[in-house]
Each structure stands twice: as C-alpha cells, then as structure tokens.
Design goal:
Blueprint (H helix, E strand, L loop, with lengths): L1 E6 L2 H11 L6 E6 L2 H4 L3 E2 L7 H10 L4 E4 L2 H5 L2 H6 L5 E2 L3 H8 L1 H11 L6 E5 L3 H11 L3 E5 L8 E4 L2 H13 L9 E6 L4 E9 L4 E3 L4 E2 L2 E3 L3 E4 L4 E4 L6 H21 L6 E10 L2 E8 L7 H4 L7 H10 L13 E8 L12 E2 L2 H6 L3 E5 L2 E4 L2 E4 L3 E9 L2 H14 L13 H6 L1
Bound molecules: glycine.
C-alpha cells in the first residue's frame, strides 16, 4: 500500500514506524518528514496548505491512503480536498475539526449536548472589560484559553487573580496570540488528573486505542511553562475500566452522535483530553488528531496491523478489523534543546542514537533532527523521544531512561519524572 503521511514531528515518525512494521507491505511518503522518517520512507517536499499540489502528488504517485498528522491542515480542509477526489484519508473534515480549531465552538457544542466539561464563558475582541469583570467575579484559579489554534500556547492556567487579569489583557487586549485569540474562552479550573483518550471512527463505527497520559510542563513535578509535551506513557492507570466506560457513555458517544446530528459526521481520530474529577471524566479539550508525544507510546502498544486499521478507518470498514494490544506498558521521554519552549540553538551534534536503538524494546522517534555528513544534528526544540515497552511501567521507564543515557547533545534537556503519577498509582 502506498501511503502519504503529512507532518514532520515525532508523531509522524511513530506513525511511519508503525506502518513500516505492519504485516502489510507499504511504500511510505512523508511530507515533509524528518531525519527519522527519511530512514524508513521517502521524505517529500509538499506544502500541506497547497491542496492542489497534495492532490496532484496523490494521483501521480498512486497513493492509496493519506494520514494527516497535525491539526492545522485538518482545520484548513485538507481532508475535504482529498475526499472530494475519493482518496481514503485519516482525518476529519474542516467542519468536524472545529472541535479543536475553535474552543468557542467546542464548548458551545458540549453545552448543547450535555457533555461534561468546565463551566465557561466566551468573549470577543472589544469585550475586554466584560472579560475582566467576569474573571474578577469568578476569582482564581481560573483558566483563560485562546479559542483558535495556538500551537500549545493557548491555554493559561491562572493561579491568582492578577495572573488571570494579565492573561485576559494579553490575549484580548494586546492581541498577543493574534487571531487565535480574537475570541477567548474563560473556564473554571478543574481538579483532578488528566488523561488522553483516542477514538478512531469511520463515521459510524468507532474503536478506542490505549489510554495515555502526557507531561505538558517543561519542569519536573509539572512546573514551568507548557510545552508540546515532554513525555508520555500508556496505558494511564487513572483510566480504569470504570472511568473508560463513563467517558464512552458521557463523552465519546454523545460527541460522535452530536457531530453527526449537526451535519458534521466525524471521520478520523478524535483525541479527547479528559480531567478525571470526583464527578467522573470531564472534557478539557478535543483534538482532531493523534497526540504528540502520546502517539510514540500508543502505537507501539498495538499488536494488530496498524495499516489495516487506519485503512479501515479511512474506507468506512472499521467494523471489519480488531484492535489488539500488547500486555504491559509503554513510555517515552522527550529530549529537548536547552531553552525550549523558549528560544534555543540548533545544529548540536547528536551522539549515541544507534546505542539507544539497539537496546531491547527501545525505539528512538525523531522530531527535530537533521542528518549531516558526520551523523545527526539537532534542528528543533523537541529533538527526539526515546520510547520503550516493558512488562510494567517501572520496567518500561527503566528501559526508556537507559536509552536516554546513551544519547547526548550539548544542552540536552529532559524530565526525570516521566510516569510519576502512574508509578504512584502502582
Ligand atoms: N500532547 C498534547 C497534544 O498533542 O496536543
């Protein structure tokens, strides 16, 4: 099967890796890809925003399946452009991707369908004073979110009222995140533990992937600024069978039914970010794609044929495939450039990749790497993720950290406490 994967991160390397190890023979194209995808497929230079160019590439190269990794091309309608030409594609329509592309839409949608989430109000530009009055009446802690896509920088958890006033001023008053924050959602702070639930749906059937938990903050103990994600593990012990069932009954099924009823049937991967509260799971946010770095732990847990699974999703035959999973756990540790998520230098030589990859049950997924004449250099903030599998979370983390210890580059930064909540739950 000839497959085009859109994206350039660790998530896309993990998707390409899962396809490469599938029993189904594949030829992989990754646009634009990264140093890791180059080793198992062909990196191609294609602008995801140029829908005609993507359609032309698909037709000239007899591509059988397109998988769209990141959110922006989905929100921009790339999946629609491909489906219009009858190309099987993993990814929702632009209308369905609003669940991630517009928090004002998704919050109002949840309200319409009685889906549990934090209480909220939305404010437009020009309503700065009303928004400030609202946070003053609600008090802290409180969460201020840009409604639009903001590359992981759009949600500000404010511990104090002055922080909340500043966040509202920054987003709504000073236009700090530009158009992404032309509407701002202000919502109550939810107490609990977060988990990620991934739903694959072909528009009528759906299946769940293993649950996961990521680590969004740069610092140990979940401190410091938010990042794209510094590590993850699967399954997430907080997602017991009971919590999964509650999430299915109260969130997944009403969401899929609600989107279909509103004329935007969801076909693709729905990533539900949940807060597990005393009252059960509540939605923190929806994403219209797989998570990064959760993909680097979720796909290695699948023992079924991932190509067949994704193809079935894209062709409306998900009911014909079984999802099977390995026993045990998987985890990954992201190694980042010094300074990330702020500014950082590129071009640092990376050593030890082969040693880490040679370890039992360890995979290195590239994100910001670049091949050079003498080996590999860093080329991004999140450089790579060392992912491992094991019989339990402890063994898995030991393996991942052993892999990390093999790898070095100047200024390498990583968290030493990935999986701490899972380990505490035993
Ligand atoms: N790991 C968070 C995300 O992919 O949005």
């Amino acid at each position: 099967m000839r497959i085009l994967i859109i994206g350039s991160g660790g998530r896309e390397h993990a998707i390409a890796w899962a396809f490469h190890h599938s029993a189904t023979p594949t030829e992989l194209f990754i646009a634009p890809g990264n140093g890791g995808t180059d080793a198992i497929g062909k990196n191609v230079s294609l602008e995801a925003s140029d829908h005609d160019a993507v359609n032309r590439f698909v037709s000239e190269n007899d591509v059988d399946l397109v998988v769209i990794g990141p959110e922006q091309p989905l929100v921009d309608g790339l999946a629609d452009a491909l489906r219009d030409r009858d190309t099987p594609v993993v990814g929702p329509s632009a209308a369905a991707a609003q669940l991630e592309g517009s928090k004002a839409f998704s919050k109002a949608f949840m309200e319409r369908h009685g889906i549990p989430t934090a209480a909220f109000r939305s404010f437009e530009r020009g309503e700065l004073e009303d928004a400030l009055a609202f946070v003053r009446s609600e008090g802290a802690p409180i969460v201020v979110k840009a409604s639009g896509l903001a590359a992981g920088k759009g949600a500000i958890v404010c511990e104090t009222l002055p922080d909340a006033e500043q966040a509202v001023q920054d987003l709504l008053g000073d236009g700090k995140l530009g158009d992404a924050a032309s509407t701002v959602v202000i919502e109550s702070f939810m107490e609990g533990e977060e988990a990620s639930l991934f739903v694959l749906t072909d528009g009528s059937e759906y299946v769940l992937l293993p649950t996961a938990q990521d680590h969004k903050r740069i610092g140990e103990g979940d401190t410091g600024p938010n990042t794209g994600g510094m590590g993850a593990y699967a399954p997430a012990p907080v997602m017991t069978e009971h919590q999964i069932q509650l999430a299915v009954d109260r969130v997944v099924e009403p969401t899929l039914r609600g989107m279909a009823d509103e004329g935007h049937p969801y076909q693709g991967i729905l990533y539900v970010g949940l807060m597990i509260t005393d009252e059960g799971p509540k939605v923190v946010e929806y994403n219209c794609r797989l998570g990064d770095p959760e993909t680097q732990v979720v796909l290695p847990m699948l023992s079924c044929d991932v190509v067949q699974l994704f193809h079935a999703l894209a062709t409306g035959s998900l009911g014909d495939v079984d999802v099977s999973m390995h026993e045990g756990a998987s985890a990954c540790v992201v190694m980042a450039s010094e300074g990330y998520p702020g500014s950082y230098e590129k071009g640092k030589q990376i050593e030890g990749l082969d040693d880490a990859s040679a370890r039992d049950q360890v995979e290195v997924f590239h994100a910001g790497t670049r091949r050079t004449d003498s080996g590999w250099d860093t080329s991004g903030g999140r450089v790579l993720a060392v992912s491992a599998r094991g019989r339990d979370l402890k063994e898995t983390l030991d393996r991942a950290y052993a892999g990390v210890s093999d790898i070095s580059f100047e200024g390498a930064t990583w968290r030493r406490d990935i999986g701490h909540r899972g380990l505490e739950r035993g």
